[in-house]
Amino acid sequence: MATLSLIPSAILILVAYVGTMLWTVNISFTASRSLPVADYVGFGNYVRLFGSARWQTSLEHMAIFGVLFIAGCLTLGFLLAVFLDQKIRGEDGWRTIFLYPYAMSFIVTGLIWQWMMNPALGIQKTMRDLGWESFTFDWTANRDMAIYAVVIAALWQSSGLVMALMLAGLRGIDEEIWKAVKVDGIPVWRAYVSIILPMLAPMIGTAVVLLSISTVKVYDLVVALTNGGPGSASEVPAKFVMDYLFQRANIGLATSASVIMLLIVLAVLGPFFYFKTYGARRRTAA
């Protein structure tokens, strides 16, 4: 009976998710413009896609964003978790403050940081009003710094998630390990690097996967903060897809870009699940 009760859910998943993905892949091989058509052009859309300077720029920005975003979130989230793990006073309040930004949507985060980084309204104006006339913080209007403005906003929102994962891992570490560290006279920083971090590998892996998926599909934050500008200075693949799907009426090119994004996600998830399954089998065999 339990198996039978899962059949409707399985059918829904196959139709709504797998079926939709297969349909998207199919459309990416057609000359569809405003509406899907069955005029197949082979890999023509993919050739045009990778010949597009805008698409190449969006991939470069995604790589920059991804490296800084993931590394920054892991570092900041781990440091926040270590801070909270010291049994500090008011821990519940601090934990709420650090995790609160993650409860916001990327749209809200983007609007908040758009105001803060607006040269005429935010941090730059405040500092100049206080007397620092030469202070400059116009990253959203600076072509060279726009993508880094997106990184800062994303770090502010998502570091709390990593903190929660890391803190759960730290709270699961046996107190005897810390006693042994003190007895052996191992420096605290060395204990974290050589002992604690390897024990947090499952949490780190989960965080990397979640952050990597967020990197690939980041869209609303970019639209709310910079709208991909100035020019194409903060263009990302998800915005490329949405623009060609709804503004430029080129479904074939948009779906081919979507398929590439799907392949990137699978490239991230594949090794994660492989090592997770392989590691579990090795532990079982041992």
TrEMBL record:
Per its record, how is this protein called by name? Sugar ABC transporter permease
Which N-terminal stretch is annotated as signal sequence? none
Species source reads Aureimonas glaciei
Transmembrane as a keyword? yes
Q: What keywords tag this UniProt record?
A: Cell membrane, Membrane, Transmembrane, Transmembrane helix, Transport
Task: Provide the topology term for how it sits in the membrane.
Answer: Multi-pass membrane protein
Whether Membrane counts among this entry's keywords is yes
Q: In which family does this protein belong, per the annotation?
A: Belongs to the binding-protein-dependent transport system permease family.
- Chain segments annotated as transmembrane: 6-25, 62-84, 96-116, 145-170, 191-213, 251-275
Where in or outside the cell is it found?
Cell membrane
Naming one, the record's GO cellular component terms include: plasma membrane
